[in-house]
Design a protein that fits this description.
The complex is a heterodimer.
Chain A: H1 3-10, E1 21-27, H2 38-50, E2 54-60, E3 72-75, H3 80-93, H4 95-101, E4 105-109, H5 111-115, E5 119-122, E6 134-137, E7 144-161, E8 175-188, E9 196-200, E10 209-210, E11 212-214, E12 217-220, H6 226-229, H7 231-242, H8 252-266
Parallel strand pairs in A: 1-2, 1-3, 3-4, 4-12
Antiparallel strand pairs in A: 5-6, 7-8, 7-9, 9-10, 11-12
Chain B: H1 21-43, H2 50-60, H3 64-69, E1 73-78, H4 83-98, E2 105-107, H5 115-124, E3 130-134, H6 140-147, E4 151-154, H7 162-165, H8 168-182, E5 188-192, H9 196-202, E6 207-212, E7 231-233, E8 246-248, E9 260-263, E10 266-268, E11 274-275, H10 284-299, H11 304-311, E12 323-326, E13 329-335, H12 339-345, E14 353-357, E15 383-387, H13 391-401, E16 405-407, H14 411-414, E17 422-426, H15 428-438
Parallel strand pairs in B: 1-3, 1-4, 2-3, 4-5, 5-6, 6-9, 13-17, 14-15, 14-17, 15-16
Antiparallel strand pairs in B: 7-8, 9-10, 10-11, 12-13
Helix pairs in contact in B: 1-2, 2-5, 4-10, 4-11, 6-8, 8-9, 10-11
Classes of the chains: A alpha/beta, B alpha/beta.
Chain lengths: 268, 440
């Protein structure tokens, strides 16, 4: 090992990417970024950087075309009006569909999860289903349907990862920890597989499932720093997007955060 | 222009304003019970007792708040960030115009801004005929209905405690509806023209004084609150002092022409005269707050020069920007509750070592996702201490920001051993604990 490589290793860095390009695309942050959702992009970009990749973090706003060169595409949470605006712009652009078709990773969180499904429902009055609620057609990347639920799901959520990528994980590694805040309840169709099973919290609709996976597309409710709290899921998304296994990284800060969050949610 | 000067004496003692003797007696009983509860709370060492006083009072007399507001001239201040400081500015401006007669002013200076806190402050000064009241965003509609304020200052709107509020537009809608319902009996609104949601909420008021606050935070306003279309922002001017005017791409909503403006750190009034603020509290955002307070003070009948002289006496409103001594450590306290607040506070924290205190109690918001919307990257190269119950969440955020951090969960320990003065930026709950610790 050269002196430089040793220095990188001492900082917890690994030399996997060797300067190869990797692109993370953050989609419509101004509309779908209400819960610190850009954090997922920060996490992925940094984890690629720590591995020696030459990272391009592309932010795209409505009206700008989504690049066809991305490895990972990220969508986050937003309010009703923003959600409708985002789904219209994404349909007009078509880039997200193309990305999914060519096998890029798509991670859509909260409102983003709802809009890549078949349809979702919004209403004028928050937190209560009504007759005049409006059904909006989604992008159809996932076979899921969202309607307005009886009670808003707000709070810490703990799930056991069960979907693709969870195989062979044991101990703390099998848990996904996060915070959910959604009024919509999502039901999975036959073509979607749940991402996880709910231990604490509501998840998709209170049926014990959380999130949905089809091919390289993942939808999930825990928002914002989901990938900060779940580095294994972060690396799984990168592995889908780059098509190669990720070299392990050891960050004691993150291990300690996971320990604390798991403990906090189990104490209840 | 038919302005009422701030000075006329009260036409009648406030408490006799009630039409019926029974209602009055009930309120008096409630006030005494509240006082007792507050004393008991203080003796038990549970804080000032302001909130418990209001709670007991309103339990015994549910109409206490409405009765306590009656017969007073009321000015209210609300918004996500800067409420406490702006209310202190306005109170100081009004106080300056009262001369020796400062007992005529009541002000919830401790920042207790919900129904109970406001009732508590009013009951402590039944004879004060001018009330300057910090008002929580959720209480604005009630206060407009119950208190018939003359002036309502609406500062800004940004995401905050989303686990409780869910969406910020709902609050804006409640203000808009309350102002529409109040009609000609409603307040004159002093409103931040830079914020689309504020402009939309204030539109229904009988009269609005617009303030161009040169706000630069735009992350919470990408869509038109009126029609949902995209908002368009013109390029900021060459000085970078203003964020650039905005308009809706589809409907008529646009930034209204300003009556007051903040230009390069100075406040330009209605007639175009520029005033050097010379405030004792730091930060460009406090010049914006002062501009709003100045406009409100003028509406209350205070001369601009007098108002500014008063505002310049404000140093550490409810502990904000206070410097305190804990053991051998000198610490300056900065409050930051949400991404917009952190964007203002972090650049002020210039000490070599910076202490950041994070909690997720109800008052802080139980969800700390917002940590990822704050540009902690600017702290790279500094010594950072993360503290508070959610210090570890911050430590991970800083790890991804490339900032070296020492994690000391205990607030007291985090303040030990600093040879040079430190700036401490804290969310609400640790901020209050720090105030207690330092006696500020």
């Amino acid at each position: 090992m050269s002196g430089q490589d040793q220095a990188r290793a001492d900082q917890g860095l690994v030399d996997q990417g060797k300067g190869r390009r990797a692109e993370v695309v953050l989609v419509y942050q101004s509309l779908l970024g209400i819960y610190g959702d850009r954090g997922n992009a920060t996490v992925l970009a940094k984890r690629l950087g720590w591995r020696g990749f030459d990272v391009v973090l592309t932010t795209v706003e409505p009206g700008e075309p989504l690049p066809d060169t991305g490895n990972v595409y990220l969508l986050g949470g937003g309010e009703d009006a923003a959600q409708i605006s985002a789904v219209r712009a994404l349909r007009a652009d078509g880039g997200l569909q193309r990305a999914a078709d060519r096998g890029a990773a798509v991670l859509a969180v909260c409102a983003g999860y709802q809009i890549i499904g078949r349809s979702f429902t919004v209403g004028a009055v928050s937190d209560a289903p009504r007759a005049d609620d409006e059904v909006i057609e989604g992008l159809g990347l996932l076979d899921v349907t969202t309607t307005r639920g009886p009670v808003r799901a707000v709070g810490e959520i703990l799930t056991r990862w069960s979907g693709p990528g969870s195989e062979g994980r044991s101990g703390d590694d099998q848990w996904l920890t996060g915070f959910e805040n959604h009024g919509g309840y999502t039901v999975l169709g036959p073509e979607a597989t749940p991402l996880a099973t709910v231990e604490v919290g509501i998840g998709n609709c209170g049926d014990g499932t959380e999130g949905a996976v089809t091919g390289t597309v993942i939808g999930t409710y825990p928002h914002g720093p989901l990938l900060a709290r779940n580095p294994a899921l972060a690396d799984h998304v990168l592995e889908i997007g780059l098509g190669e296994p990720m070299t392990p990284l050891d960050r004691p800060e993150i291990t300690e955060l996971r320990r604390q969050r798991l403990q906090a949610v189990r104490r209840r | 222009m038919g302005r009422v000067p701030v000075l006329p004496p009260p036409s009648q003692p406030v408490l006799t304003g009630s039409p019926r003797g029974v209602a009055r007696a009930r309120l008096r009983g409630a006030i005494w019970a509240g006082r007792l509860a507050a004393v008991a709370s203080r003796v038990a060492g549970r804080g000032s007792g302001a909130s418990i006083r209001g709670q007991v009072m309103m339990r015994l007399d549910p109409k206490a708040l409405a009765k306590l507001l009656r017969g007073r001239r009321v000015a209210m201040v609300s918004g996500t960030n800067g409420k406490t400081t702006t209310t202190h500015f306005l109170a100081a401006a009004v106080r300056a115009s009262l001369g020796e007669d400062t007992g005529r002013l009541v002000h919830n200076a401790d920042g207790a801004n919900l129904h109970h806190g406001i009732a508590s402050a009013l009951s402590a000064q039944p004879d004060a005929d001018v009330a300057v009241l910090e008002t929580d965003e959720r209480v604005v509609a009630d206060m407009v209905r119950l208190g018939r304020p003359e002036v309502l200052v609406l500062l800004n709107f940004s995401r905050d405690q989303l686990d409780r509020h869910h969406e910020i537009k709902g609050l804006g809608r409640s203000w808009r509806n309350a102002l529409a319902a109040a009609g000609e009996d409603g307040p004159v609104v002093v409103a931040n023209a830079d914020e689309p949601l504020i402009v939309w909420a204030a539109e229904t008021a009988k009269q609005v004084v617009w303030v161009d606050t040169a706000t630069t935070w735009t992350q919470d306003a990408s869509l038109c609150p009126n029609c949902g279309a995209a908002l368009v922002r013109e390029q900021p001017d060459h000085t970078g002092a203003t964020g650039g005017d905005w308009h809706c791409s589809a409907c008529e909503l646009r930034q209204p022409p300003a009556d007051y403006r903040v230009v390069e750190g100075r406040i330009v009034d209605r007639i175009g005269q520029a005033w050097e603020p010379d405030l004792q509290v730091p930060g460009g955002f406090n010049v914006s707050n002062a501009a709003c307070a100045l406009a409100a003070a003028e509406l209350m009948g205070v001369e601009t020069a007098t108002a500014l002289a008063g505002m310049r006496t404000v140093t550490a409103p409810a502990g904000r920007f206070a410097t305190m001594q804990v053991g051998r450590t000198t610490a300056r306290l900065l409050l930051a509750k949400n991404p917009a607040g952190w964007a203002e506070a972090l650049p002020l924290a210039q000490s070599a070592t910076v202490v950041l205190a994070i909690d997720s109690a109800a008052a802080d918001g139980r969800d700390v996702s917002w940590l990822w919307d704050v540009e902690y990257e600017q702290l790279a190269g500094r010594t950072v201490v993360a503290t508070g119950p959610r210090a570890q969440d911050l430590a991970v955020r800083l790890c991804y920001a490339g900032v070296d951090v020492r994690t000391v969960p205990d607030l007291g320990e985090a303040l030990v051993g600093h040879l040079e003065p430190v700036d401490v930026v804290a969310t609400y709950t640790p901020f209050q604990r720090l105030r207690k610790m330092g006696g500020v």
